[in-house]
Design goal:
43% helix; globular; 20% strand; alpha+beta
Amino acid sequence: MVSLADLNNDLRLAVDTGSVALGTRETERAISGAKAKLVVITSKGKVDANNDITHLCNVAGIKMVKFKGSSMELGTICGKPYSINSLAVIEPGNSKILEEDY
């Protein structure tokens, strides 16, 4: 079982060394454009936005991970001074985020 700390580390590494779309609008664009390889949404985020992203991921067959913290916590992990409700990993960079089961 992979720990929450591992997810946090992999998220930060993906943001720093890979290509990641941050925010609901950019995440939806990455899914629709078939660029997203993994999507992360907050479990305490905007319900309508999360439902839309969940539906898009199901239709596109993209793996989705529910982050167990708030959007402010996700923003902090990503090194941003603002909240992030969702993100799409386009290129994982040096992280192993696509190889793990969270």
